[in-house]
């Protein structure tokens, strides 16, 4: 029986053996299910909740391609193609809108110029301050802070509220696919996943449970140093005239993503931000804004790391992010309509955990906060056999 988001009584586990059992209906698990279907495999997805509510619906919906580097850049580029295919199949909103990086100092612009030197003028399109003001739909006269910026056209936007749920609904309609919602996985062995509703059988098992890997495989999670990263997020009412679907990134984004941090001027940028806005570094901010199709804007974020996340959200952190976002957007203030806390898996030891925990059972968690960006690239690499168990993609 196929059920995408069924009422509490409707979940029926498949009695036979699937080619693949995926645990976790976040974007990483669903991208793997999508790739499996494309390859003609039968799939059972087992998800403890009744719909996706994890990191995959709490994020910015920014597929941050250009700001990656090395093997992650390759995975992100592959993922972009997968997202566009999935968008076509499942009718997802996925504008090829890119990312607009706003530069408000000469040092910020220098980082963007250096990235353009490295990647080329097509991948990093420098923008004048007039063009940036125009992209933000603000008169340039009121924006003395703007120096310029860059458009990164390869970046994609998706709607995090709809992408995973719609993809799950589409998958549930495909022959050979079952999605078992409201079904908690309590143990795994080769060929069998033990759940709160009984066993589910599969040739291969893929654990895509993000930070909750420590609940099933604590030793593996500890060996990789998995922690929970907690992020402060808000949705704000449509700011006056703001129309761009591009993700809007700032100096703090340049201090975060490897593509930028490898640039020679980043050290100078860090010193500069330390000088004028140390409070942003204290909360490990990545000030970003992304617009949803209804015009409202997602605003965030901060980062706090712990084995178990504390449940309390600091209002001063939230207010700091909102003030900074209003400054970047060039509006006096923003009006919050929703707040939430995001949590994702993080590790100081590497951006991915890819471990074969038993024969035919693989655990895969993105431990660097870029799972939306990488999801479909990881899925393609999984089925091609080009992901190594150390987490790095093999070079062909
Ligand atoms: C605030 C925020 C902003 C972010 N912004 C971006 C961004 O702009 N770009 C980007 O690329 N990434 C971003 N990320 C990171 C990205 O959202 C994550 O890396 C990605 O969503 C991880 O996907 P996942 O499927 O592994 O995890 P999840 O979406 O958390 O899914 C894991 C699923 O496993 C299920 N599960 C766990 N244990 C069990 C069990 N025992 N039995 C059954 N089911 C189980 C959970 O219920 C959950 O549905 C952001 C994250 C946050 C929180």
Tell me about this structure:
The protein is of the alpha+beta class and about 400 residues long. It has two domains: about 1-95 and about 155-225 and about 345-395, FAD/NAD(P)-binding domain; about 100-155 and about 225-345, D-Amino Acid Oxidase, subunit A, domain 2 (D-Amino Acid Oxidase, Chain A, domain 2, 2-Layer Sandwich), CATH 3.30.9.10. Helices cover about 35% and strands about 25% of the residues. It has 14 helices and 19 strands. It has helices at about 25-40, 55-60, 70-90, 105-120, 130-135, 165-170, 215, 220-225, 250-255, 260, 265-275, 280, 315-330, 370-385; strands at about 15-25, 45, 60-65, 100-105, 125-130, 150, 155, 175-180, 185-190, 190-195, 200-205, 225-235, 245-250, 290, 295-300, 305, 335-345, 350-360, 360-365. Strands 4, 5, 6, 12, 13, 14, 15, 16 and 17 form a nine-stranded mixed beta sheet that branches. β18 and β19 form a beta hairpin. The two termini are about 40 Å apart. The site of flavin-adenine dinucleotide has 41 residues, from α1, α2, β12, β17 and β19.
